[in-house]
Amino acid sequence: MLIDGNAVEIKNLVKKYPGVEALQGVDINFPAGRITGLIGPNGSGKSTILKSIVGLVKPSRGELLVFGQKLDRRLKEKVAFLPEINHLYKNMKIVQIIDFFQSQFSTFERKRALEILDFMNLKPEMRIKSLSKGMAGRVKLVLTMARNVPLIVMDEPLAGIDPQSRARILEGLINEYDAEKQTIILSTHEVLEAERFFDYVVFLEYGTVKLQGNADDLRSEHGMSIQDLVKEVFI
Q1: β-bridge mates for residue 187, sequence order
Q2: Residue 158 belongs to domain spanning
Q3: Domain membership flag for residue 210
């Protein structure tokens, strides 16, 4: 899988739900081999874009290409998705969920999952129902980052997690990320902690792109951090 160019290309993407147009002709190129932050208030269309990329939402109109191709079953195997919701089975042990993921995805590396789990200070025999929200968030990251795939998509991986756990999760993410082979697209409200990892940033509001570009270029052009730029863009 080539990592040059754009990992995802979105052209004039429209998504209509009953009574609302979640995406209003969005144009975005997500560069390959980079970490892109998708930033915006609730209802801006972030989750709709991410779910469209991984094939969970079908756009009403427009074009979406993943590594230059339309998403199909074969290509979906090359995309890992971390949803905002807690999709973990509460009565299962972490090791049981790891074994389940191994049975579901040929790209899942069990040894890698156990190594990341250890880094996250989690034990395989822990039951999901006994975990705090921050610990459950780490498990979701373990399951996602253990997939040997070129595209990783994450929807609010830090939502509701305490600052100490957020730092640990971000550290784990970057330690496992291979820029020569992988692309990460993630949405987050926790810009203060996450922005130092962003190579590219897309600002969304009301289903439209307000601003996008290389993170360093945006900082230089506007003379402020991405966190401060959020305040300027969404005033």
Answers
A1: 38, 155
A2: 6-78+149-234
A3: yes
Q: Exposed/middle/buried for 211, CB within 10 Å: 0-12, 13-18, 19+?
A: middle
Whether 231 contacts 192, CB under 8 Å: no
Split into its structural domains, the chain has a count of: 1
Half-sphere exposure of 97 (CA within 13 A, CB side): 27
* pLDDT tens-place values along the chain, 235 residues long: 445 699 999 999 999 999 889 999 999 999 999 999 999 999 999 999 999 999 999 999 999 999 999 988 888 889 999 998 777 888 899 999 999 999 999 999 999 999 999 988 899 999 999 998 888 888 998 999 999 999 999 999 887 777 877 877 787 778 788 888 999 999 999 898 899 899 999 999 999 999 999 999 999 999 999 999 999 988 6
CATH of the domain at 170: 3.40.50.300
113 belongs to a structural domain: no
For residue 223, the tally of other CB atoms under 10 A from its CB is 8
C-alpha closest to that of 57 among 47, 66, 65, 67:
47
Question: Which amino acid is residue 108, in one-letter code?
Answer: F
Range list of H helices, the chain? 46-53, 73-76, 94-104, 110-119, 133-145, 163-176, 191-194, 215-222, 226-233
Query: 23 lies in a domain?
Result: yes
CB atoms within 10 A of CB 163: 12
Token look-up 């052009």 returns 221
pTM for the model? 0.91
Question: Looking at the domain assignment, is residue 99 inside a domain?
Answer: no
Identify whether the C-beta of residue 59 lies closer than 8 Å to the C-beta of residue 13: yes
